[in-house]
TrEMBL record:
Keywords attached to this entry: Amino-acid transport, ATP-binding, Cell membrane, Membrane, Nucleotide-binding, Translocase, Transport
Pfam families: ABC_tran, NIL
Organism of this sequence: Paenibacillus sacheonensis
Assigned GO CC terms: plasma membrane
SUPFAM superfamilies with a match to the protein in the record: ACT-like, P-loop containing nucleoside triphosphate hydrolases
Residue ranges of every copy of the ABC transporter domain listed in the record: 2-241
Protein's name in the database: ATP-binding cassette domain-containing protein
Biological process terms in GO annotation: amino acid transport
Family of the protein in this entry: Belongs to the ABC transporter superfamily.
GO molecular function terms listed in the Swiss-Prot or TrEMBL record: ATP binding; ATP hydrolysis activity
Length: 334
């Protein structure tokens, strides 16, 4: 659905040139929810805005739904942009227009009939749960409600792609979760492809299928959210993963450990099975859980534990082999 090839973008201010993004390749499948995470100034906004050519890349190709956007005339581009909705951190609503009129705005631009606009706006109000607020003005709404208007407006012309520019950054945690649930719901119901940028790992973990980590204008890591989360490689990725992990570093325990410290990861339904107990029950090995998370990433359960095994070396090896046989990943804590 989205194919960015060798995208670079430089900004020139006077005699100084800043390379905001450098040689980025990104392919996003139809129906996917793809997250781009990075610190402030990493190049996230620039990258996102190249997808609808709000920022024209200095070089590279931008294809959406198979159409090369950089080669289009401005009228052709305007038409293609209807297939790409966008929502913003600060909502960008028309302050002097009601919720209904804000949502109707792109439909009026597209010259739909009054009756068609009314029908479509009612559908959208229902989809985002704002039927009761249709005649209010933005100033009368909460942040979460304003973002719902933004989402309804972005979906008005039935786009294939929704771009989300830090869409939950101005919201409190509870409202953030409600908006993320709405995005997930829209993705499931409409099959729309979602590309979002954020600096919060929580957002990635809650709704994304894949993630790219961007640092200094380059993609430094990319993959399925589960893999990146459980086995982060780049220091920037580790930094983001630690946002949602326990702040206590279990490596502090290595010096005082009596036994063998292992890091164990598991994914899927085995998360709920008594695997540790079963692995040690026929041995004299004992274990202590020193740190642990059992949670869900989107819809997939996973566990991540730091375990100290105490006992005979050979028996511990047998226990670890048994756990690996059951599909758990077990590695020495280092
Ligand atoms: N219009 C512009 N003119 C000059 N430099 C710019 C412009 N827009 C962005 N930059 C620079 O490009 C780099 C990337 O900026 P960008 O806004 O894409 O980062 P970001 O990751 O979205 O950051 P934030 O999370 O703070 O919005 C920064 O060094 C920024 O200063």
């Amino acid at each position: 659905m989205i194919e960015l090839s060798d995208i670079s973008k430089s900004y020139r201010t006077g005699s100084v040139s800043v390379e905001a993004i450098k040689h980025i390749d990104l392919t996003i499948a139809k129906g996917e929810i793809f997250g781009i995470i990075g610190h402030s100034g990493a190049g996230k906004s620039t990258l996102l805005r190249t997808v609808n050519l709000l920022e024209r890349p200095t070089s590279g190709s931008v294809k959406v739904g198979g159409v090369e956007l950089t080669k289009l005339s401005s009228s052709q581009l305007q038409k293609e942009r209807r297939r790409i909705g966008m929502i913003f951190q600060h909502f960008n609503l028309l302050a002097m227009a009601t919720v209904r009129d804000n949502i109707a705005f792109p439909l009026r631009l597209a010259k739909l009939s009054r009756a068609a606009i009314q029908t479509r706006v009612n559908e959208l109000l229902q989809l985002v749960g704002l039927e009761a607020h249709a005649d209010k003005y933005p100033a009368q709404l909460s942040g979460g409600q304003k973002q719902r208007v933004g989402i309804a407006r972005a979906l008005a012309s039935n786009p294939d792609v929704l771009l989300c520019d830090e869409a939950t950054s101005a919201l409190d945690p509870q409202t953030t979760n409600a908006i993320l649930d709405l995005l997930l719901d829209i993705n499931k119901k409409l099959g729309i492809t979602i590309l979002l940028i954020t600096h919060e790992m929580h957002v990635i973990r809650s709704i994304c299928d894949r993630v790219a980590v961007i640092d200094g204008g380059e993609v430094v890591e990319m993959g399925d959210v589960l893999d990146v989360f459980l086995q982060p490689q780049h220091p920037t990725t580790k930094d983001f993963v630690s946002q949602v992990a326990d702040s206590f570093d279990p490596r502090e325990l290595i010096a005082s450990s009596k036994g063998r410290l292992m890091k164990i990861n598991y994914v899927g339904e085995i998360t709920y099975e008594p695997l540790l107990f079963n692995a040690v029950r026929s041995t004299s090995v004992q274990f202590a859980i020193l740190q642990g998370t059992v949670s869900r990433m989107k819809n997939t359960p996973y566990g991540q534990l730091v375990i100290e095994f105490i006992g005979e070396d050979q028996e511990i090896r047998q226990v670890i082999a048994n756990l690996r046989d059951k599909g758990l990943e077990a590695g020495e804590l280092a």
